[in-house]
Amino acid sequence: MNSGTEKSGSTVVCAFISPRNIYIANCAVSRALGDYEYKNLRDRGPCEQLVSPEPEIYVRDRDDEHDEFLVLACDGIWDVMNNEDLCNFIHSRLLLTDDLEAVTNQVIDTCLYKGSRDNMSIVLVTFPAAPKPNPEAQKKEAELEMAIERRIKEIVAEQEDKNEFDFLKLLQLLVDQEFPNLPPGGGLSAKQPFIEQVFREVCPSRADSVSLGYDFALI
Predict the structure, then answer these.
(1) Are strands 12-17 and 21-27 parallel, antiparallel or unpaired?
(2) What is the CATH number of domain 9-40+49-126?
(3) Which pLDDT score is estimated for 4?
(4) Among 36-45, 170-179, 195-204, whose mean pLDDT is lowest?
């Protein structure tokens, strides 16, 4: 730092949950922690520099009857999902499982398949009103996967030269299909791991083409 060679910086978003309130501090702009080369104006205070480390602070009353969950995430998530999309997606996944690690992994995967190329991290905290696994939701998810698998097999069967058919072509054909009960906020991108699995089973000789799908966003 003294020699001027330390130029790194970062951001932060954090939350403190008390029995009655939720406190959120957001300093996620312009790498507000560090970046000392932008904080060297001697006639200005710490929060009056070109880049300020002063966070925005929000306070919300707890509502155990309605509060479902809290999400803290970085740009790689918000680049491809807005607040409503992410909340709807997480809500729908909590109806399938109470494994929070599995849910957050699905968020990361879905954002990757939606085309995010920025850093991705997420923290998910559930509250008493969070959705619980629901047999009806699980049934609809199973029906969705059966419909996707059936359509993939139909598409593969229609190909005259299966040796020239690859995973990217499959994704391009699936985009125009209508499937019931796609995850809200996630869409077909949320099912890409399942699509990959079925493709590998149906076209084992073309399994190496799955990596092509990472360059194609299933919006």
Answers:
(1) antiparallel
(2) 3.60.40.10
(3) 66
(4) 36-45
